[in-house]
Amino acid sequence: MSIRVIKNFINGEFTAGESGKTYDVRTPVDNSIIAEVHEAGQAEVDAAVLAARDAMVGPWGSMTVDQRSALLNKVADRIDERFEEFLEAECLDTGKPRSLASHIDIPRGAANFRMFADVIKNTPTESFRLDTPDGTGAVNIGHRGPKGVIAVISPWNLPLLLMTWKVGPALACGNTVVVKPSEETPLTTTLLGEVMNECGVPAGVYNVVHGFGPDSAGAFLTAHPDVDAITFTGETRTGEIITQSAAIGLRDVSMECGGKNAGIVFADCDMDKALEGTMRSVFVNCGQVCLGTERMYVERSIFDEFVRRLAELAADLTLGAPDNPDANMGPLISKEHQEKVLSYYKLAAEEGATVVLGGGVPDMGSELADGAWVEPTIWTGLDDNARVIREEIFGPCCHIRPFDTEQEVIALTNDNDYGLATAIWTENSGRAIRVAEKIDVGIAWVNSWFLRDLRTAFGGAKQSGMGREGGVHSLEFYTELKNICIKL
Q1: Is 290 marked active-site?
Q2: Is the Cβ–Cβ distance between 222 and 240 less than 8 Å?
């Protein structure tokens, strides 16, 4: 396989940059090098932000909403037309099965542009009539305008989907963007630059700078004084650092950070539905989903059956490379992340867990032996204060604990620093609403998981982030709402 050369995309052109610094990207499937990436320095970040600033006052800034929406729909259509190229790039970067990426990552990447191209044309602003002492009155009209240059810091687990989830609404609202994708997964973000040019998106509207966090593109971008807002998805500690940087200049931030999500299974659930949903929430994308479930609480009367059946289903998972048609689980993103997840597997045993399934590295044969593979893993028996219960692992694993009462499981679920999502399994609608309202999370699913209406609010509570995106909530972040008061 030939090694790709990945350059920064600035002002409509691909550029290597002044420093000449490059780094290698390796596929997690077998740890082989798939790309040489040109790292952006301060000069490239400055150029990208300047290009984005100039585009705001250039042709992009003078376009109507309908014109911008038409372009974004064209971008979505072009992603569909180049579907196989995006799919190949995403699978190279992440190692995930083609069946998963073709079902979720690439279609949702295109859908994010279509949805926000529609939302921006159909969301009203407010208007109020005000009485005045002279009797003539005044009218107040709300007006949404673009915020400016948006820095987009996107993660490696769903590279195209989560990047376009931010770029789509940002561009729909008339902003321009500078994207810093994860250093682990640069391919689809860069490929989107080609699509932008093909679709006639003006130069400087969409820019990409590659590199790392500290003393690299990430830090240079988030500290740049001409960046008007920052949107980030990633781990909580990085989000805290970015928020501190954004405080200088009082730039707006949208943070979607870590999670230690819980699933709650009541005895009156539909067991088959709960097992199917839990299988996906624990093991899909090799557990590398911010909304994934690492803590399961199951009512005691069905606990043993649930543990047994979940372990049986997980044991049937087929690990394999993206081109293996039978594979439904791929590797972790990198050898480094493999070390982290395996350290928690070891810690679970040290903390006294009963290993129901997995707990190690699978035998993938000689060709894939150097890949970032781990076994799907299930534990029981840990204390509620165990680190494995409290800290985010971001791997294909969960701990299952019995509970006896509704009040108990609500307290257990909320006893965590994070508050991103939960899944509740019960056929009692009153209980479902009652429990969902009391769980401290941004998203509560009932008898489902990862069922997303893109018009609804998305975000976390506590250390899982700040702000909401999705539908009109994205417009609230990516626009400045101005009040125009007209005296009659």
Answers
A1: yes
A2: no
Closest to 394 in 3D by CA, of 245, 271, 291, 241: 291
Q: How far is CA 334 from the centre of its chain?
A: 18
What token pair was written down for 37?
């990436």
Strands, sheet with 127-130, edge to edge from the N-terminal-most edge strand: 127-130, 138-146, 479-487
CATH number of the structural domain 4-257+464-487: 3.40.605.10
Nearest to 143 by CA among 485, 488, 464: 485
Residues 6+ apart with CB under 8 A from 377: 345, 348, 355, 357, 358, 359, 395, 396, 397, 398
Q: Which residue has the tokens 């990207």?
A: 25
Residue 286: active-site member: no
If residue 432 lies in a helix (H) or strand (E), which one and from where to where? helix 429-438
pTM above 0.85, yes or no: yes
- Cα three-residue angle 193-194-195, rounded to 5 degrees: 90
Residue 318 — φ and ψ, nearest 5°? -110, 115
- Catalytic one among 256, 294, 299, 375? 256
Q: Do residues 210 and 217 touch, judged by C-beta distance below 8 A?
A: yes
Find out if CATH 3.40.309.10 is the number for domain 261-455: yes
From the candidates 290, 392, 397, 469, which is the catalytic residue?
290
Write down the pLDDT at residue 1.
66
Annotate 230-250 with DSSP letters as a single string.
EEEES-HHHHHHHHHHHHTTT
Cα dihedral value 211, 213, 215, 220, nearest 10: 80
What is the rounded CA–CA span in Å between residue 445 and residue 398? 18
Collect the ranges in the chain with pLDDT lower than 70.
1
| DSSP-derived 3-state class of residue 115 | helix
Tell me how far apart the alpha carbons of residues 266 and 424 are, in angstroms, rounded to a whole number: 8
Residue boundaries of the structural domains of the chain:
4-257+464-487, 261-455
* Chain position carrying tokens 């190279």: 92
Quick: pLDDT tens for 137-172: 999 999 999 999 999 999 999 999 999 999 999 999
User: Which of 33, 39, 188, 2 minimizes the C-alpha distance to 105?
Assistant: 188
DSSP character at residue 275? H
